[in-house]
Structures are given as C-alpha cells and as structure tokens.
Design a protein that fits this description.
single chain, 515 residues, alpha/beta, 5-stranded mixed beta sheet, 24 helices, globular
Length: 515
C-alpha cells in the first residue's frame, strides 16, 4: 500500500470481511516502509527500496520493541520474588526471544502488550505493600489494543485484570472510588475501540474504492458515504470465523492437548515441564487446605501472592494456555506471550539454576532450528530472484519470468520488489501439491512456445528434487541455497550421513529448459 508493490493479500485482510486490524501493521512495518520511501525520494539513499531493506527494516523495529520485555521483567521481578538479573539472563537467552520477538508476528505484539499489562497491574510500593492502583486508563487502552491486534489477547488479559480488580477492591475503602477506577478503564477502552474501528473502516473502505496508494485521488465524500453504509469491527469477524470448527479445520486441526504436551515443551523446554510439576504440587496443596477447611477467609492477594511459589504467576501462565487449548488449531507461536510469567516463575526460588546446562543446550538448538534451518532458504532465495528479475535487459525484448514455488512456505511476494504496474513477473505458489499436479503444471509451462523469451524457475526443497526429475522436462541451470529444512518434507536420516547431505538440507532454484 505504501510502496505500491505487488503483494498477496491474506484472507484476513480482504476488504469483503476483514478479520485483522490494519492499525498495527501500518504503525510498525508501515512506518519503516514510509521512512525508506522518504529516504529514496529525498535522494539520501538512491536504492533504499530492495528485498533486504524490505525484510530487515520492520524486523529491526520489532527487535527494538522486544526490549519492552526486558524492561517489563526487570520491573516485575521484585514484585514476584524473582531475581531481576537472573530473570533477564533467562529471558535474553531464550530462543523464543531471539527468534520470535525479532519477527513481525501479531503474536509478538500480543506478548509485548501482555508484558506491559502485567507491569501495570503489578505495581507496588518499595516497602512491599501494595500501591494504590492508578493505571486504570492505560489498562483499558492496552487491553482494547491487544483485543484488536488478536482477540485471543482476552485469554492473556483475564488473570491480570482479575488480579487488578482484586487489588482495587482490597485497597479502596470507598465504593465510589473503586467504581471510579472501573469507569476510567471502561471509558478509555471504549475510546480506544472507536479509534480502531474508525481506522479500520477507513482503510478497508479505501481498498474497496480502489487502492490506498491512490486514496488522495478518491473523493472524500465517497469515503464518508461508504463509512455510513459499513462499519468494520475486525475482532467480531475474527471470532465469528474462528468459532466455526469447519473454518479452523481448513488451517489444520490438532488434539486439544497439543499446547500442553507439545508446543509448550517445544518453545520453553524444561521451564514448561517445571511449571507443570509445580502446578500439580500447588493444586494438591490447596485441595488439602480446602478439605481441612483452611484458608477460606484469606484475602485473594494474600493467598496467591505471598504464598510460597507465587501461584498467581502459574495462573498467569496456565489460564491463557487452557483457553487457547479450547480451539482445535494450535500453533506454537500462539504461546510466545507466556514467556514473561514463565521466566518470572522459573527464577523465583532459583528453580531454573540447577537446569542451566539443559536450558543453554535447548535454546542453542532451538535458535539453530527455528532461526536458521527451518524454511531458512526461502528468504535468501527471494533475494537471489529479486536480483535476477531486475537485471538489465533489452527494452525492445523484455523477459517474462515465471517463479513456481512448491513444497515451501508461502513466499512473501513483496520481497521481489515488483511494482503493481509490472506484468512481466508471475508468481505461482503450489504449496504442497502432489507429484502429478506439480509435473502437469511444470510440463505445461515448459511446452508454452508462444513466449520466446520466457524464463521459468521452479523452487523446491532438496528432499523433493527426485520428484521433479520424474517430470518430462529438462533443466538448464540450477542453484542450491543452503541451509533449508522443510519439516513437511523432512530429509531421511541415511541421506544426512551420505555425501549428498547438503542437497537434502538445501533449496533448489531450477531453471526450466526449452528442449
């Protein structure tokens, strides 16, 4: 929208029924794209807009934002009986922080907002007694912003909000003052919601009228007229879509215990296992207390905060995890906001110290797998193709490029840096197509003799290289991008110990011959 590039609009951002707010993408990636566009227009940087800057500039901004986690953990640690510096080391050494929080995920923003919310509800006086809550407006703003970013944010915000409400009730002698806090929260939440709804309605209405790039050419009265006809509230569209099990099944269905048994361990390793163990012990402890009719009249903050082991942190961790487990589609990245309460819980009472060698090895392997190997060749491949398709050519005989991707994650087309007016580059994403369908498409492109100067490139993982050789085509050139690991088409162990192991951990760019 800002750089006038050809992109693929995900279904969540289609103007017919948008499920995601456009505010956060515009405030993050949009700002960085506007900056590099301005630098190029001012001739400060003649070639600022390229595949590298398009990738790195938003990631650099998110990396800067990731220090919000460090600030939050440092502020929260004393409140939850954790050592600040040990907590910071555990946070900074986690591959979740190094890999996921430097990428442009909505889950990353969700985690940052969750951390800030925890800071706001956990403020205390230096003497250790609870401070009078004064953050009602900010809590309302952050909760609503998180809800519009990802409606699942309510699962993360539930326990902090209940904890904050408990502090309000405990610290206020006057009902009027307590009601005043809640009214401030509600009013600020409503105002924030109005801002998001207005911005989303303007954005998606402009897409229906034309392209946002040409919004200045559109009549303001047309936009206002459209606004009167259609108010867009993206979280409601998101919830109505995801509450339908059939829709979730289209994206993959998982057992309800996947988050507990697989994703939590995949992201946090031994820390997740320690939290489960501590959770069972504390649950058993409180069941015994209830059976003996003890602690019935203890205040909620006194029972949960000052008890041994900070069970409230476990609730901050397991309650969102339980709510997310109600949905059949469960990806590991959905849990990355939980790193803050888990780090705080793990460093309280030095739980993680005796496991430090296991933690270090786990995070090194995790960073290597998810930060380097997993689909690692796709971005360098797009860098290579961007240079290729923008190479100098004869103005009288422009080349036509067809880029066919198979058995890779969806290639981000924006990194090819193709202007919307350009029609000489075609991108085909065949995802995980079967051998017959793949060969049929490749053969069809190879036998297209109506275009004399067409260049066709097939991009596939090395583990599928043998499949493409069965097609009735020839390749005149090939390039291997290393490393690249496809978990959907994993390499077989015997090949990894052979002389051909690099090809199994690589991504091929095959140029189709015209024999």
């Amino acid at each position: 929208d800002i750089l006038n590039l050809q992109v693929y609009y995900p279904w969540e951002f289609l103007s017919s029924s948008p499920c995601r707010t456009a505010v956060f993408p515009l405030m993050t990636s949009g700002v960085t794209y506007w900056v590099i566009k301005s630098l190029q227009q001012l001739d400060i940087c003649s070639s600022c807009i390229n595949s590298y800057t398009l990738l790195v500039s938003p990631r650099l901004l998110f990396t800067m934002f990731s220090f919000i986690l460090d600030y939050s953990v440092y502020r929260l640690a004393p409140s939850w009986e954790a050592d600040p510096w040990k907590a910071l080391v555990l946070l900074a050494g986690s591959y979740v922080t190094l890999v996921f929080y430097t990428r442009t995920f909505t889950n990353t923003l969700e985690g940052l907002l969750f951390a800030l919310l925890m800071v706001l509800v956990s403020s205390r006086k230096s003497a250790g007694s609870l401070a009078e809550p004064t953050s009602s407006p900010l809590i309302g703003i952050i909760t609503t912003a998180g809800f519009f970013n990802r409606p699942t944010f309510l699962a993360f915000a539930l326990m902090p909000l209940l904890y904050w409400a408990g502090l309000i009730v405990d610290s206020q002698k006057s009902i009027k003052t307590a009601i005043n806090h809640f009214l401030k929260l509600v009013l600020c939440a409503c105002f924030t919601a109005i801002v998001f709804v207005t911005a989303d309605t303007l954005y998606f209405t402009s897409l229906e009228l034309g392209n946002l790039y040409n919004i200045k050419k559109s009549s303001l009265f047309d936009v206002i007229g459209q606004l009167n006809e259609k108010i867009i509230v993206t979280p409601f569209n998101f919830l109505s879509y995801n509450l339908n099990p059939h829709n979730l099944a289209l994206h993959g269905s998982h057992p309800r215990i996947t988050h507990f048994t697989v994703n939590g361990i995949m992201l946090f390793g031994i820390l997740h296992i320690l939290a489960i163990g501590a959770g069972f012990k504390m649950l058993k402890k409180y069941i015994h207390q209830l059976v003996r009719v003890k602690s019935y009249y203890h205040g909620p903050s006194g029972l949960l905060v000052h008890s041994e082991g900070n069970p409230m942190l476990l609730l901050f961790y397991f309650v969102p995890l339980a709510f997310l487990s109600l949905f059949s589609h469960q990806e590991p990245r959905f849990l990355i906001p939980l790193i803050v309460p888990l780090v705080l819980f793990s460093t309280s009472q030095n739980r993680a110290v005796k496991w430090k060698h296991v933690i270090v090895i786990f995070n090194v392997l995790g960073a290597l797998l998810f930060g380097c190997l997993h689909q690692g060749g796709l971005i360098p491949c797009l860098f290579h193709l961007e240079h290729l398709v923008h190479s100098p050519e004869s103005p009288h005989h422009p080349r036509h490029y067809t880029l066919l991707f198979a058995h890779t994650y969806m290639p981000p087309r924006s990194l090819l840096n193709i202007k919307k007016r350009d029609t000489h580059i075609e991108v085909i994403d065949m995802a995980g197509s079967e051998e017959e369908t793949l060969c049929q498409t490749v053969e069809q492109r190879a036998n297209n003799f109506t275009c004399n100067d067409c260049q066709v490139f097939v991009i596939i993982p090395g583990t599928v290289r043998a499949t493409i050789t069965k097609c009735s085509v020839s390749f005149k050139n090939e390039t291997l991008i290393f490393p690249h690991l496809s978990m959907e088409d994993p390499p077989q162990m015997p090949f990894l110990f052979s002389g051909n192991w690099r090809s199994q951990l690589g991504l091929y760019i095959l140029q189709l011959g015209r024999d």
